[in-house]
Amino acid sequence: MSTYPGSALLLSAAHARHFPPDLGAEVAFAGRSNAGKSSAINAITGRKALARISKTPGRTRLLNFFELLPGCRIVDLPGYGYAAASAAERATWAPMTTALARRQSLRGLFLIVDSRRGLLEGDDGLLAWAAEAGCPVHVLLTKTDKLKRAELAQAMAAAHQALEGHATVQAFSAVDGTGLEEARRQLKQWYK
Ligand code: GDP
Q: How far apart are the CA of 61 and the centre of ligand 1, in A?
């Protein structure tokens, strides 16, 4: 299954006017801080340190656009869930996410959820955003290498129940590679 060795940061946007032209296909990644979003992006693209860029000083609060192939992008949204984001920061995100939802290029959202914690406050906001945008959602239940088989079954069942059919769900581990090919297939499908 293809990786994306040519992936690179395209730009970091602090405002919707900085977004790249609305051409081609774009897939968003969002999740609570520490859920494993950067690790998932790195694993899926096959670029070990790609999403580390999003964590460098000055970039954690921006929308980071990566180009995987010509016309095929990932948009890495700021992690949420910590009270650290100021009202001012949230006020800049809201118009950006609104603008992102309106883009023709937007094909799907990977919602990154720590399998040990399940869907939490903040995740519902992203689900509502995607529903409003008519954007399909695929949930990656991450860090499943830390779960026993029965715990994973329980986490999957809880996620399915919480999502009420509004998103697809899969197990994922950046550490042992669980679900990696499935996630890559989903991305490729959205890029078609
Ligand atoms: P982000 O804040 O959502 O981008 O999360 P990171 O990708 O930086 O991961 C947060 C922490 O979880 C780091 O310490 C990672 O090493 C760890 N982590 C991420 N993915 C996995 C995984 O699949 N398995 C395990 N065991 N740890 C992981």
A: 18
Ligand 1 pocket test target in 39, 53, 61, 110 with most atoms within 8 Å of CB = 39
pTM over 0.90: yes
The string of DSSP letters for 108-147 reads EEEEEEETTT-S-TTHHHHHHHHHHHT--EEEEEE-GGGS
Task: Tell me the per-residue pLDDT of 160-182, one tens digit each, with 9 for 90 and over.
Answer: 999 999 999 999 999 999 999 99
- For residue 178, the 8-state DSSP code is T
CA 17 to chain centre: 21
CATH no., domain 8-191? 3.40.50.300
